[in-house]
User: Fold this.
Amino acid sequence: MPFQLPKLNFAYKDLEPYIDSLTVETHYTKHHQTYCTNLNKAVNELPELVKLSIEQLLIKLPTIPEPQKTVIKNSGGGFYNHNQYWSTLSPKPQKAPTANLMRAINATFGSLDNLKSMFSGTAAKLFGSGWTWLVKDRNSAIDIITTQNQDSPITLSYRPILALDLWEHAYYLKYQNRRADYIEAWWNLVDWKAVGDYYFNS
Assistant:
């Protein structure tokens, strides 16, 4: 079955005033959809890949021949990364991490405020287009990393639990070059229940 965009848990306007409705609609129906469409085209050219999940495709990336490898890296990564991004946003988010995630946050960063400060600082310094992530490693330790373009943490043996899209299409209509303002606003939409579910289940 072809990959399909996951249904959003909110209407386009529901993330206002932090992210405007036109940005959400364009981001989802144009950018995310294009990644999905191009991913399906590449996968359909190699029948042995058709039954793989997006996670399996990205893990298997080094073994996929060109030119499909590059398309799946870019469009498959874009599809997967955006799935992660939307799934942890909510107009009515749970404001505090779950207990098991909070223990991991405190052990690594000292406090939730420290995590937010370090995450925001890392995101603000990212050069060009890419992502900032909170990830879990194989030992259940958490860390903050960045990836360029549509590279995904899953190809680096991390499980992403929180994703921040730093491509300009994610914020430019409302914030123009004020990336730091977008990052600050984005925290108001982070649903810590969803983040905790990723931490517990991944």
